[in-house]
Design brief:
Layout: H1 12-25, H2 29-49, H3 51-65
Length: about 80
């Protein structure tokens, strides 16, 4: 596997969190960041694509509409 190195600027607060996570998980900081990217990308993709927005909006619409009306055929 070939690797490419990209410089990554992080706010101090986030860098401290990476250091703590790496130490707690017995990983290098680079490995902790790689794992964070690997596990976080599906969530980022979902948020950016709007897939979750549609599902949420659809559920909210059904909640507002309430249950489907019942039709009594003998009353038609």
């Amino acid at each position: 596997m070939s690797m490419t190195t990209y410089p990554l600027g992080l706010p101090e607060e986030l860098m401290e969190e990476v250091k703590r996570t790496a130490a707690d998980a017995h990983l290098s900081m680079a490995d902790a960041m790689r794992q964070a990217i690997k596990f976080g990308l599906p969530h980022v993709r979902e948020e950016v694509s709007g897939e979750s927005d549609f599902a949420e909006a659809a559920a909210e619409t059904w909640d507002k509409l309430g249950p489907a009306p019942t039709v009594l055929y003998d009353q038609l």
